[in-house]
Amino acid sequence: MTRVLPPQANFNERPLVVFWEVTRACRLACRHCRASAMADPARDELSPVEARSVVAQVAQFGRPYPILVLTGGDCLIRRDIFEIIEEAAALGIPVALAPSVTPKLVPDLLPRIVASGVRSVALSLDGASADTHDAVRGRAGHFAETTAAIGAMVAAGLSVKVITTVMAANVEQLADVAALVARTGAVAWEVLFLVQVGRGTAVGAITPEEHEAACHALFEAAQHDLAVRTAEAPFFRRVALQRAGGGPAPASGLYQRLSRRMAELLGPATRAVCPPTAGTRDGKGIIFVASNGTIYPAGFLPLPLGTVRSAVLRDVYRDDPLLRAIRAARFSGRCGRCDFADLCGGSRSRAFAATGDPLASDPACVHQP
C-alpha cells in the first residue's frame, strides 16, 4: 500500500505550537466551551513564578521555538498576562493571543497588546449573524462587539486569525462566515470542528457526511484570498489533496448549498489550490498546558501526561509513550489502515471522546481506505 506523506517536519523533537490555558476565568458562558470556564481564576492556577518557568520550558525546545498561544478562559483576565508575553518575546518566542471579546478589550487593552510583542491574535466568530453567534456565546450584542474588535485589531496592524467552531447550529452558515471573514482583513480563518468535551457535550455535533461536505466547501473557500485552516478535522488535508488531484466533490445537499453560496459571495477562484499543511494533530506538533500546569496532548484530549510543576515539558513531549504512538500513526481501525494516516491521522480528541481510546479511528471521517 502506497502511503501519502506530508512535507517533512521533525515533530518528534519539538511541537509547532504550545497552547497554554493561562486561566479558566472568563466573563462569557459559551455553549461549547472546552474549558468549562468559570467566573474567577481557579485556586490551583499557576503562580507568576511558575508561569515564568513555563516560558523557560518552552524555550528549552530550542530554535526554531514553538509558537506559544496564550488562551483560556479569557487570557486577558490573568493579572500577569503582559509580563508573560514580554518574558516570552524577550527570549524570541513567537507569542499569539486568543482572548475573549469583552467591552473593554478594544478601548482599554488594544494599545497594550500592540506594544507587548504579540505576533498575532485569534478571535472567535461562530456565526454570520447576531442571532447565531450570540446564541452560541451566551451574550446579546456579542456579534457586534466581535466584528468591531476584529476590525480594530486589523486597523492597529495586528495579524488577526478568526476561529469558527462548527456545530449543527451554524454549519449552514459557513459560506457566509467565510465571506464575512474575508471582508474583515483577517489573515486566516481557522475552522474548528466541535469535539464534545467540556460544555460541548451538550452541543449538537454534525454528522460524518456533513464533516466531509464542510471540508469540500472549505477547499473552495481556500481558493480565494483567505488562508483556511482546520482544527480537529485533519482529514481536510486528505480532501484538499484529493480535490487538487481532480477528485470529485460530494453530491450531498449541504455541500451543494455551501458551494453555491460560496461562489455567489466570493466569486470565481482567485488562486491555485494550496498544498496541504504539515501533518500536525493532537500530540504531533501540538501540546497543551492547562491553567494548573497539567500537560495534555491537546486541549480537547483530557489525558494528563504530567505537570510542568514537576516535569519538563520538552521531555514529556518527546518521550511520552502515547505521544510517540500518535506521532508514529499507530492507530487501530480505519485510521490505522489509511493511506493518509500520517498526513491526516484523524482527530485523536474525537476518537477518545467517542470510544475512550485516543488511538482509535476518528468517527467523523467517512473515508474508506
Rg calculated over all Cα atoms: 20 Å
CATH superfamily of the domain at 17-266: Aldolase class I
Largest sheet: 10 strands, mixed
The parts where pLDDT drops under 50 for at least 5 residues are 1-7
Strand content: 5-15%
| Strand ordering within the main sheet | 7-6-5-4-3-2-1-8-9-10
Brief synopsis:
The protein is of the alpha/beta class and 369 residues long. The protein has helices at 48-59, 81-91, 105-116, 130-137, 142-155, 174-184, 208-221, 235-244, 253-266, 313-319, 321-327, 333-337, 348-355, and strands at residues 17-21, 67-71, 95-97, 120-124, 159-166, 188-193, 227-231, 286-289, 294-296, 306-307. It has a domain at 17-266: TIM Barrel (Alpha-Beta Barrel), CATH 3.20.20.
Describe the structure.
The chain has 13 helices and ten strands. By secondary structure, the chain is α/β, with parallel strands linked by helices. The protein has a domain at 17-266: Aldolase class I (TIM Barrel, Alpha-Beta Barrel), CATH 3.20.20. α7 (208-221) crosses α8 (235-244). It starts with 16 loop residues before the first strand and ends in a 14-residue tail after the last helix.
